[in-house]
Amino acid sequence: MPSRSNPAMLGPMPSLYDFPPIFRAVHMEEPHEIAEEVAFLKKVWARHLKRSVRRVLDVACGDSPHGQLLARDGIEVVGVDRSGVMIAAGRAQARGFDGIKFYRRDIEDFRIPARDCDAAFCWSETFPVITENASLIAHLKSVARVLRPGGLYCVDVDRHDGVRAPRERQLWRRRRVRAGTAEVEVREYRRPMPWYAGGWIYEINCAIRFPDRVVHTRDLIPVRYTLPQHLELAAEASGVFELIACYTDLLFRTPLAKCYRRWLGVMRRR
User: 8 pLDDT exceeds 90?
Assistant: First the structure.
């Protein structure tokens, strides 16, 4: 799934990220999935932290559905995202309780007032959109500034072996989605990046048919081919993290060789 924070190369049309409820419907996010992901994060924290988690950082948070669940459980949440529209939606949804704060920042290199978080997480296949080495190191150092020593940073990555970088723009799939009163025609493409970039561009075009108008959106999102070994190297190169575990498909016992869909990298702040 592409990034919630859409850091990348936008076409001349509006962005799907300007329509948060439709964004989630198009990306087929279900409420039960968010709850399952939060439950697994809590298990990871319990396994690898000797202290209770009281404050967390949600990286590329969007409207922070994970953070809202955590905040309702009494955990203080700090979210960073570059989309002002998504942050505004999160603030509106979280109105009425003080457990979550949002900061509009570029996730590749940021500073925020918050400190001493026990854990951080980057979900929804967002981490691979950081395609440059220097940006990746800056990102890890930015997260580390917010974490206490020994704190955990968990990143969620789709299994990438089935994706091949195309030599030319290729249609991946077409589908229709219903989001409230809107019907959305979705066309998704894979576009090439230079061979030495080690990735591809995910293009998503939508025709959003509201009762009174039609809005066309286009988003171009770079995706870096990301493996556990890559994450291990990046953590070591950052000087502030070490990779301590990888888990697959929200399970502890399934080996990487039997990963079906996604894996979670767990890094510890030095």
Answer: no
- Is the confidence at residue 164, as pLDDT, over 90? no
| CATH class of the domain at 28-161+225-269 | alpha beta
Torsion of CA 252, 258, 259, 263, to 10 degrees: 40
Task: Give the DSSP letter of residue 15.
Answer: P
pLDDT bucket at 95, cuts 50 / 70 / 90: confident
| Residue 180 DSSP one-character state | T
Q: Where are the domains of the chain?
A: 28-161+225-269
Q: Cα(129)–Cα(104) distance, rounded to whole angstroms?
A: 18
Q: Cα dihedral angle (189, 193, 195, 196), rounded to 10 degrees?
A: -140
Beta bridge partner(s), residue 182: 179
The Cα–Cα gap between 245 and 198 comes to 24
- 0.90 exceeded by pTM: yes
CA dist 127 and 154 (Å) reads 10
